[in-house]
Amino acid sequence: MSEVWTLGGRMEAGCLIGLLSLLAIEDMKTKQIPMVPVIICGIIGMVFHLIFQRRTIGDIVAGILIGVVLVGISILTKGKIGKGDGYLFMVTGVYLGFWKNLMLLWLACMIAGLVGLGMILFQKKNRYYQIPFVPFVLLSGFVLLLIGGGSFA
Fold first, then answer.
1. 134 closest CA partner among 12, 10, 13, 17
2. CB 3.0–4.6 Å: which of 48, 59, 96, 138 could bond 55 by disulfide?
3. Rounded to whole angstroms, what are the CA distances from 29 to 25, 65, 88, 93, 141?
4. How far is CA 133 from the centre of its chain?
């Protein structure tokens, strides 16, 4: 069972990092998040759950709710935060559960905030300058993988 558990963790990590890599590139090029890969990886994440059962349903639902809240914030702020980011965090919630998804969001926000501050101080950008968020989510995913020893478990 331990080998299956490890295999499931690595498959999940590969799928999630692959998705984040694809979306980071697209977000940097177009400042848009394509929904087809997000939906496909969300479905794959649910299949992984059915096969490997690495998280409880409650943990997955709570993880998805983080993305739902982000979509709600996007609607309330008239798009200051992209809805695509919220949908992405719904999918990461399937893979990571609540606490790890919250950590992913927190790390991404901290890194993006530091980069944004650097851009304001050194590149003379104003605080309304928009930067793509998914590259910071990808970097945060790698940090979580490093902490988790190659798995998000």
1. 17
2. 59
3. 6, 28, 17, 25, 20
4. 10
Report the candidate in 135, 147, 149 with the shortest Cα–Cα distance to residue 17. Answer: 135
Q: Is the dihedral angle over the CA atoms 63, 133, 32, 23 positive or is it negative?
A: negative
| Domain layout of the chain by residue ranges | 2-147
pLDDT per position as a tens digit, 17-49? 999 999 999 999 999 999 999 999 999 999 999
Retrieve residue 138's tokens. 């990808």
- Residue 119 pLDDT: 94
Q: What separation in angstroms does the CA of 93 have from each of 53, 69, 129?
A: 14, 12, 28
Q: CA-CA distance, 5 to 21, in Å (whole number)? A: 24
C-beta of residue 16 within 8 angstroms of C-beta of residue 141: yes
